[in-house]
Amino acid sequence: MRRLCVxxxxxxxxxxxFPPCRPGEQACQTLVLSNYGDTPASFSFTNAxxxxxxxFSVKPLMGVVQPKSHALVRAPRVAGR
Length: 81
What we know:
Layout: E1 9-11, E2 26-35, E3 41-44, H1 48-53, E4 62-65, E5 69-78
């Protein structure tokens, strides 16, 4: 019988809150994507233009989390002027 491999992915935060900062200053949050499964899990943040319009970005925009591993995703935001 063939075994079904399903990624088991967890995101460290369900919401991202940035600390207060002065106009023009940058604040950054880091998310941890953890894959507890036995197969690679791909991720992508597909609406980069909406993120940019909101004043922040996500790096990397896409990638793969290997089995039994994790990936760090940075979300820097520059406060409005």
